[in-house]
Amino acid sequence: MNKTIRRASVFCLLLVLALLVRVTWVQAYQGQALADDKNNRRNLIGQYENPLGNIIVGGQAITGSTKTSGKDFGYKRTYVDGPLYAPITGYSSQAYGTTMLEGVYKNILNGSDTRLKTVMDTLTNKRADPGNVLTTIDRDVQKATYDALQGKQGAAVAIDPATGEILAVVNNPSYDPGRITGANDEAAWKELSADQGKAMENVALRKPQAPGSTFKLVTLAAAIENGLVTSIDAPTGIPAPYTIPGTRTNLPSEAGDAACNNVSARTALKLSCNNVFAELASKLGQDKMRATAEKLGFNVQIDTPVRTNPPSKYPAKKMSIDQVAQTGIGQFDVQATPLQIAMVTAAIENGGKLVAPHMVSEVTDSDGNTLESFKNPKSQEVMSAKTASMLQDAMRTVATEGGGKPAQVAGAEVGGKTGTAQRGVNNNIPPLAWFTSYGKSGGKQIAVAVMIENSDTDRSEIGGGKLAAPIAQKMMAAWLKK
């Protein structure tokens, strides 16, 4: 009997020891991982237990928090002019997570970032007071862009070339993120997710598409940098009509063969002569074209800090000679976002230096102390000052004599480039209308890119100069006339 009791006692003791080891393991080694697990509802409850920090535009909060009547969540996110700023803020939802700046800086805004903790917070394990995110967005440029895009489906971006500060990011259609911030907003979520979620697409930053003739700026930059074009006013010797290399296919230009035969680079850019840029790309070859594109940001994920995912694209896979020629006019498999095209123009305006684009200037704690600063962004020379000057000269001709005339801003120097990009099989989808431009006046400068996907314009009238250039004009005027 005693032997049986002893065995039972030892067995029970071993069970207790195993339990103690397991508890110690869970608490000491797995505790933090379990606490941080995305499925731990306590974290979600804690995130909305107190008012959130704010995203700031021009010194004013464009976000807020309001008390809820629910049992789990003390507060929920609110937005000021939600549709206007949605591509920047994203949403902070109790049911559907966070996106854009709300997602990138979630821990700052909910107070869980360790940099926010005071000594007392650490001792008491109390959630710190939340911090704030200060953006580079200019309220006037943002509003002018948003208003100008009404009635059209498209997107636009504005950058200060000298600083890399993103002044505006606008998508249309947009949405009000305040509709989906609660725990029971399923109906609104389903409505916004309908039609493939177009309202919540961040087209300006995250939907690369064919850039059409705006990409000719990259082609011309590559040609000048590699010595293929030494003067923008010398005849190129490129004939029209023009047959795409390696094919029997004629490549027409909107201006007609007579106007594009053996023209200079300046005239080719003004008239958007496809023969010139297709031949330049063909002569340069894929590697040199790709190298120039990548210097300007293609094939690179850019953190603004919202990540451009997928990135803009110049094909890395080996192409045939006819495909390389087509990339020279922004077709085949070249894809770009409005942000990317604005970056190209910003580098040209800034003397060949590309300053890293960013939409956040500072991240601060609740007392305004700086935790992160982006006021000295990385700058890289992506083309020579001479190349940039030649491109500026040619772009001014587009804006004064070519299809970019609607972008003129009184009292300012403006240079631009139109673009119309084919879509679908045999161009069976209405083309994209693009326009990119720079403007400078009184020591201020701006680079913009506008892309229109759909409008009520007759297909024969779709073009970057007619649809997108007037929007660019309003964007530039809002900044230059301050």
Automatic annotation (TrEMBL):
InterPro entries in alphabetical order: Beta-lactam/transpept, Beta-lactam/transpept-like, PBPA_dimer, PCN-bd_Tpept
GO biological process, alphabetically ordered: cell wall organization
Any Pfam family the entry gives: PBP_dimer_2
Cellular component GO terms held in the UniProt record: plasma membrane
Origin species: Streptomyces lavendulae subsp. lavendulae
Gene3D superfamilies with a match to the protein in the record: DD-peptidase/beta-lactamase superfamily (3.40.710.10), Penicillin-binding protein 2a (Domain 2) (3.90.1310.10)
Recorded name of the encoding gene: pbpA4
Gene Ontology terms for molecular function: penicillin binding; peptidoglycan L,D-transpeptidase activity
All copies of domain Penicillin binding protein A dimerisation, residue ranges: 53-133
TM spans (from-to): none
Penicillin-binding protein transpeptidase domain sequence ranges: 154-476
Name under which the protein is recorded: Penicillin-binding protein A
